[in-house]
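Lecture notes, unit on protein representations.

Consider one protein chain, 139 amino acids long.
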Amino acid sequence: MPQPIRQDSQFLDLTKRIQTYKTVDASPALAAETIIATLTLTGFADTAVLSGVLLNAWAAYTVGTSGTAVTLRIRQTNVSGTVVASTGAMTKTAASLYADDVNGFDAGAGVAVYVFTMQVTAGAAASTVSALLVQATII
């Protein structure tokens, strides 16, 4: 009879492979694409990337005056960086509270900084991001 698989993760440190960020950096003003969170991967240069980086981002927000749609994106490095994932324009109503997510996979070596952005179509006043979570899993 074969021996059962016995593995123990008690001493397995995944802190460099699974990282999160949950602070709202900013809320979108008017219709500009705005970085609402920045996840900087600590120890990235010392962590082997075998397949890529799995990214998950979620935000709860209230759409500003006149807003008609919201687009959430995960980008590399900054607001003009390569788009890893995008929800596309999701129809929304001004002054309403929503919670949405966007997920993506950055194949290859990845980068040490990912940003989570939000853009409100036709927004005439600031929208408010009330909570968020960004997670990266280095695979």
